Every structure is written in structure tokens, then in C-alpha cells.
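Let us begin with a simple case.
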Amino acid sequence: MALSDRKIQILQAIINDYIETAEPVGSRTIAKKDNLGISSATIRNEMSDLEEMGLILQPHASSGRIPSDMGYRLYVDHLMQQKELKPEEKKYLQSVVARDINQIDYLMDILLRFIRVGEHMLMAMVLKEVIYRNALKRECHK
């Protein structure tokens, strides 16, 4: 079964709406919202084909459809339109990445300190156990 332009439009409509709402998307929603110029019955038929192709799923018998992993992959690889970031968006993302990298360094430093303290605590627990067992042995041999 071929992926026609109409099927692609319906798949895009399902994925876009699902991304916005996190709810299964019905044929009536697509017919009203996306102005594809086709009836909800035609959309249902195309959705059935998309489901057979493995691009969408119907989580419940009476619900709308959601994208499958394969449908998302097709969308990301071929259908999604790349948007150019505004300068302020780029600057914000760069600051977030820099902050997160610094945060990771900070967390690693804390983790290493904890491990060092933990090693000392573990050593102390082992020594305590050894001393306790030696004391028991001495008591038993008296």
C-alpha cells in the first residue's frame, strides 16, 4: 500500500494534534480542525490504511488514533518541518546547556565526596564487624 499525499496529510494531522493534546485523535477532529476538504468517513478509511501500515494505533476500540513508533520515525525523518531558532532562543538554549553541564560537574563532585565518605563508613563497619567477631571468638575460647 502506497503512502499517498492524503495519507501523509492525515498522519501529520494525527501526530500534530496528539503532540498538542496527548489524546487519541478522531476522524471528526481532523475533518473539523485541519480543513483537508474530505469527509470524516474518508478520513476514517485512510486512518484504517495507516493503521494497517503500522503508522498509527487505536488504543481502544472506540477511541481515536495515536502515532506508533514507526509513525513518529517517519514524521521525524521526513515530514517534520525544521524551524529556524530566533537569536534569543539560541542564547537561552546555550545557557541551559552550559548550566546543565556545570550542574553535572557539581553533582559528580558531590557524588565523589559521598563515595569517599562512604568508603570510610564501609571500612568502619567492616572493622567493627571484625573486632566484634574476634571478641566473640576470644569469649568462646575462654
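The second case is a distinct protein. As before, the sequence precedes its C-alpha cells.
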Amino acid sequence: MDLAGDEFADAYQYIYVPEEWEREERSSRTLPRIFSIGCSAILGLAIFAGAIAAIVNWSRRKFSVKAFLCSLGVFLLLSLINLANNWLNISSQFSTAQPFKNQVLVFILGGLVSSLFIAAAVALVIGMVHYWNQERPGTGGPGILVKGFALGMLVAGLSSAVSRLGPESDPIWASYDSASAVIPVLAGSLRPISSLILSATVLLLVIGTVNRFSKNWTHKKGVYSVLLVLMGVVLAGTGGIDSILFWLASGFITGVVLLLLFIYMIRFEWGLVPLAVGALSILSQIKIVLLDAHPASVPGGIVATLLLMCVAAFWSRTLTRKTRLGIPLPTVDQERDDSTG
């Protein structure tokens, strides 16, 4: 309680948290945080290694320059817009002990270099994966959009069911990330597109690598099955880890689901990947719209949903072309017959 002279002025509730409990809680979260950072680092190294392999393939003319330039322009533009739109949040963290202009210069140069580096790495991987896809039999069909989005809904349902088996998580909180942007609607609309491109690129790299080195799933199936299951464990740890045992269990389930989807669906139709990832992102945007945390949530979520649908559908279409260089290619059914025959 606060007093103003001899009068009561204010009252507020105070909860005392013992220092020993704080130390124990902080210690219990240290190891899961390390594993989560390690999972994110593995994905980053995978993109970096894929970029190096793409440069080698480019030197051997086994690279899709058109896909590289298109993805580089889009991802770099999105990164620069998000960087500029995040100015208020970044400038609020400037130190008052250093010259303001120097910090602005570091922010601009550092942002440009990092944005260009990440965009180039992602674009290189996309160019390599698209060339690998051109060497495969033609895929796709009128129902691939429905199958792709349905696959994403299925994965979301399985993920939700598995999460209910774990320890109690935090309540469902609304996201206020875009509220701190210069133009909140723009941030809420474009950030999910960058996440879609990055997530789909990682999955396409993994799927393309396994499919290529296993020679269309005809050699060393056991080794690459273990690799896909381990990749599921890594993907499960990138979103944060509350319990190590539950992370390993949910990651194993994720890996098994990824393995089954690869064997029976995705390796025949790579165009399902951006559609499935897009469906997961759209569900996240629906959640943001329903929670309506701030005035820009609803319009930003609606615009993001429309953009996600368009980007996922366009990307899927580029991965499901029926011909290459004017030469008709076998259909999906013919490829399945060849691989099982």
C-alpha cells in the first residue's frame, strides 16, 4: 500500500518468489534451451551446406538459375521490408552511451549484409532443388492443391494431438510481435511469407537429398530412414523445448510421420511440400485473427492468409510441371510402377 501523507493513495499485490526457486527453475530450463538452440543451429548448417553444394552444382551447370534469381529477389525484398519495418523495435534498444548515427549505420549495414547472405543461401538451395526436380518424372495433377492443403491440415491435427499428451503448456497467448512495427499490418502480412519460404526450403532440401542419394528410394533405405526420423527430432526442437523426454518422443513421432509421408506421397510429388507448409501457416494466421490481439491483427492475418495461399500454390505449380525442355515425362503412376516393380 502507498500513502500520501496521512491518506491512502494506492494498493497493489506483490508475490514473493524465493530466490532458491528461481535458481532451480532457471537451471531446469538451461539444458532444454541448449538443445533447442542446437536444433536451430543444425537447420542453419543444413542450409549453409546446401548453399555450398548448390554453388558446386552451379559450376557444373546443374542448377536452375531462373529459380535462384526469382527466389533471391522475393526473399531479399521481404527481408529488407521486414528490416525497415522493425526500425522502432531495434532503435529502442540503442545504447545512450554511443553515438546515435553510428548505431544507425551499424544497423543498416549489418541488416543489409545479413539479409543478403541469408537470401542468397536460401535462393541457392532453391535453385539446386528445382534442378533436381526437373530431372525427375513429371508430377502433379488437378487435385494436388487439395491434397497439399489437406496434408498440411492432417499434420496440424497430428501435432495438436501429440501436444496434448505432453506436460501442461502455457496458456494460449496472443502474438503482439507485429504491433511494434512501423506498419503493423505490413509486418503481419509479410513475415509469414518469409517463414513459409524458409521452412519449405529446408524440407525440400532434406527430401531432395534423401531422394537423390537413395536413388529414388532404391538404395540404403535403412540409413536414410534413420536420417528422416532424426530430422523429425530436430524439427520438433526448433519451436522450443519444455521437457526433454517429451521432445524426444514427439520428435520421434514427427520423424516417423515424415518418413511415411516421404515414402508414400512426397517423393512422388514435391509440390505437396509448399502447400502443406502453407496450410500450417494459414492455420497460425487464423489463430491470430481469432485472438484479435491488436487493431492490425485481423487485417494483417487476412492479407497474410491470401498471400500464403498464392505463394504456396505458385511454388507448387513450378514444382509440378509436366514437361522439361519440351520433352514429355512419365506420370506419377508410371514412376510408382517403376519403383515398386
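The chain has a mean pLDDT of 85. The chain has one domain: 2-340.
Keep these points in mind for the review questions at the end of the chapter.
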